[in-house]
Amino acid sequence: MITVHNMESCVAACLDSLIRQTVLPLHMIIVEDGSTDASAAVIDTFAKNDSRFTVISTNGIGAGAARNRGMQEVSAPYFMLLDGDDVFHPTMIESLHRAAADGNADIVICDMQEMDDATGAFTHPLWALKQSQLPPTAAFDGWRAMSGNLFAAFMGWPWDKLYRTEFIRSAGLTFPEDLANSEDMLFTYQALVLAKRLAVVNEVLIDHRMGRGNTVSSSREKAPIAFYDAICRMKSFLQQQPDDTWVKLQQDYLNWAFDWTLWNIETMADEGTRRMLAQRLHDGAFPGLQLDSRPASFFTLYPRSMVRYAVLMTWLDADTRDDGPLGNLKQLPYGKHKFWDFMNPVEKALTVWREKHPKPSEW
User: Fold this and answer.
1) Most buried of 161, 240, 266, 342, CB within 10 angstroms?
2) Secondary structure E strands in the chain
3) 141-164: average pLDDT
4) DSSP code of 125?
């Protein structure tokens, strides 16, 4: 299933890459969600030439609702939730389907690479699939078989995954339609937590287009707190699960939620919005993170979290930056990633050198 909104310049490449799959998909559902450009015309051309395409037209109902509408039409044993601006390697469906069958998996996850929309250059971000967090086997019994962090191992986006249809439907999983953004995180991580079997294909099978602009993720300023709403909903979901789910996953999840909060603040395009969110973080306006009820050492599963937090606090008034939920910046457990203000000259010189000679890193 593919969702499309204002992707005239790139949707043809997406659909062409599906036609070129080594194992052809039996049914390709396109939800064209009220595009104001020529996306619909491009899609109709493909549909007229290939009967396997089914086109559903919706009136700008949003990404989550569009995906829900498309999922209603799924009749195959497995399905994917693809974005209309990405490009898929020819063996993607074949590789993921084989892994699902061999591993009896509810979800199969593959690796990806980023593709710059302007230049076509590729970058392989190792953080998209953190191998260090995964078991040595290609398939395993869900998060309980992982010694690493489920939320760190996989990204909270739906399009690099193959889903078993009966699993998704029996779990009653859908995308929340009342969130302006972050709805994909809720669906994806709920599915990963509920899956009894997971499988991983450690191959780059998707070129994820970056820098196109006018996407859901690039318009977060319109609803800058939606990410926190999603964090709280996911936390509530975990706490409602049976047995010891929340007990076992709470540190992994709260560390991920802290990291994601930092990312949401850091990457807001508008400086005023960034400072507003940093101030809210300082003032304890995100209580669901539990930053003020745990020692700072609890939140060090992500190596650079303390440094990133300290940087955000330095955006604020110098007299109040040490009064945030994690306490005095000088006393934070930075580990090997020290905060610039507290480095000696040698450490600063080494940091500058490393920034000029970066190495691939999961983190």
Assistant:
1) 161
2) 2-4, 28-33, 53-58, 78-80, 82-83, 87-88, 107-116, 122-123, 139-140, 161-164, 198-210
3) 98
4) -
